[in-house]
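Next up, sample data.

:::
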Amino acid sequence: MDDGLKKRLIGAAVLASLAVIFVPMLFEEPPARPPPLPPLPSKPPDADFASSMLREEVPAVTPLAPATPPAAPDATAAAAPAAETPRTGLTAWVVQAASLSSRENADKLVARLRAAQLPTPDPELVDIQGKRYYRVRVGPVVERTEAEGMLDKVSEIAGTKAQVRQYP
């Protein structure tokens, strides 16, 4: 085939492909306009924060009183009521069952403790001297005596010597 004929055929093919691409664009409708944006918020005031806004009194938090079992009535209790000391801090207690290096073993222990109706959260990931452990705890409970009451049961289920710890 002649060289000039080849160039003419290639040129015709290029023109035909351009026509196929661009001619439909001439007959299309223009794209829809996007919805308008909401108005910008108003400018904040130039003045600094006014301390006059803090003049309202905020009520103090009432501390929790420790739960005590009702005492047996006796002659001295009738004469003067016992003065209860209010709880001064928000402390709680947990029973630390174990610190395990395997997440799978920690999850199994949590499942056994939950099956025994003990309040057990998911294992907590901790780093101890550069090593990762999964700490399994039961609680928290408000009273230390309640945590100490769960100690033997947790030790038996976990197969370790559980410990009562302050929370958090």
User: Anything to note?
Assistant: The helical segments are 3-27, 75-79, 103-115, 144-158. Residues 43 and 67 are 53 Å apart (CA to CA). The chain is about 35% helix and 20% strand. The first helix runs from residue 3 to 27.
